[in-house]
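Side project, low priority. Logging it here so it doesn't get lost.
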Amino acid sequence: MFESVIGPKMPLLDDTVVVWFVEGRPARLVFERVRWRVEGEPRPIIEVPDGHMHPLITHVSERQTGWRCSVRRDGGGERLELAVRRDGVRWIAERLAA
């Protein structure tokens, strides 16, 4: 009778990123189901959003779209360089060359 009350199970997306901030800057995050700590100073990513590009606009305003962070895996020595950006209501991360 109650087999499908909540519907089918939704798969957990591997690209889900959770970010914790301290004083407005990323301090910790979960990326690829692993906890990471930000090392050093995260650097803001400043760029022109795609929706603001138009041939008639000569001085497009730039804005901060995310953070570039060096992170270290909790409990391990692995290090990564990540670009963390807001995508609507969620955060996404992209591995960068170190």
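Brief comment: The radius of gyration is 18 Å.
Revisit when time allows.
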